[in-house]
Amino acid sequence: MSEVYAARRTRLRERCNAGGSAAALVSRPANVRYLAGAAPHGAVLLLGRTEDLLVCSGPPDDRPTEGRPDDSLQLRALPGPGGDPAVAATGLAAEQGAESLATEDHHLTVVRHRAMRSVAPTLRLTDLGQAVEQLRVVKDEEEISCLRIGAEIADQALGELLESILVGRTERHLALELERRLVDHGADGPAFPTSVGTGPNSGRRGHRPTDRRVEEGDFLSVCLGATYRGYRCEIGRTFVIGTSPADWQIELYDLVFAAQRAGREALAPGAACRDVDRATRQALDSAGYAENLPALTGHGVGLEIDEDPQLAPAAMGKLDACVPVTVEPGVHLPGRGGVRIDDTLVVRPEADGGPELLTITTKELLAL
């Protein structure tokens, strides 16, 4: 992987040079890991004029889940506690003879930025902007492989839960069990706090599990994700508990399923992000659920669970091949509950079979 990280840093350096900066300081943890292979707590990456340095507050953690720093990088640990790697790296950039340094202003605090200026007052600090985030949008096959394994782990954890007795158990208990199963199957941990909603809580985006117990006839909606080697994916499904679904449950489920399928089928290289969102929500809008819909119907995933691109009505830009995204429409009816269906897919051209579905747990409306 060393050559992969080196190539990523080269692409970033080319962008910086085009913008007039000979050096760059990367501080956002996901961006540091993308370029360096690991992001020890508080570490920053300096792309210097003479060498690249991973500047840490102490020796890097050697836990596998934290990643391993690229062997070709020089590591520089601060001599004592209490120092700021970003400030130290700024001084090192000045020592290397850099006249300007591009920094991630969207991640740095004002206080930190002032401290960096004070250690190298002659160094011109410019804004790197979202350059690294933009590089991260299109994934290589190694990154997609990590997402694929994470999706398999999430599918396994969810499948095992569905085989257990659910009536009488609390949302909180089920969420904790799912997260334990993720780790048991090899995940670094959950990709985000697991959401389990029952009855009137079902279908609610980002619902925090409560002590409400599962009851016969409930909708049960689950949204979970696994992190594998730093890469995060997600899956969401909705089921009915213990009995045949009511007519209103079947109708609502079929509607959300049709919307989700339309969104999945719209994924293609060159497709406008807003058009994928439009395809997903069109059926729900026409059925009168426009006010019950979330602000977006999908987003990118990777080293963070919510990355670009955003699939939303006002989203700009088009999809590229090898971009992993979620398609996750849902409808929540206050006091009754709702449905959410969520998959992680990779955009692929039609010649390669179209969008690759990573999360494969059935989307049939099961009565558990």
From TrEMBL:
CDD domains in the record: APP-like (cd01092)
All residue ranges annotated as the Creatinase N-terminal domain in the record: 8-138
Domain Peptidase M24: 146-348
InterPro entries: Creatin/AminoP/Spt16_N, Creatinase/aminopeptidase-like, Creatinase_N, Pept_M24, Peptidase_M24B
Main enzyme class: hydrolase
Keywords in alphabetical order: Aminopeptidase, Hydrolase, Protease
Name of one Pfam family that matches: Peptidase_M24
GO molecular function: aminopeptidase activity
Protein name in UniProt: Aminopeptidase P family protein
Source organism per UniProt: Streptomyces tendae
Organism phylogeny: Bacteria, Bacillati, Actinomycetota, Actinomycetes, Kitasatosporales
